[in-house]
User: What shape does this take?
Amino acid sequence: MVVRMRHTRAHTANRRSHHAMKPMQLSLCEKCGSPKENHKACAACGFYKGREAVNVMKRAEKRAAKEKREKKEAK
Ligand SMILES: [Zn+2]
Assistant: This one.
């Protein structure tokens, strides 16, 4: 080990002082009013910037079909 590579505990702690997680920033969906993550389509209605970005019903159906299929294969 080279001396140049050695870090003190204080050096390490100072570097890690910026590693804390920030709480999630949520805003309200302008269509359905449920809380949603910023810069993402609403999880409840699939709208983003006033238009439908994700078809929530179709996605739910697809997910249900997949679960059903996987349950069948497990048996
Ligand atoms: Zn919404």
About this structure: Residues 56-74 form the longest helix (19 residues). The pocket of zinc ion is lined by residues 29, 31-32, 34, 42, 44-45, 47 (CB under 6 Å). The first strand starts at residue 26 and ends at 28.
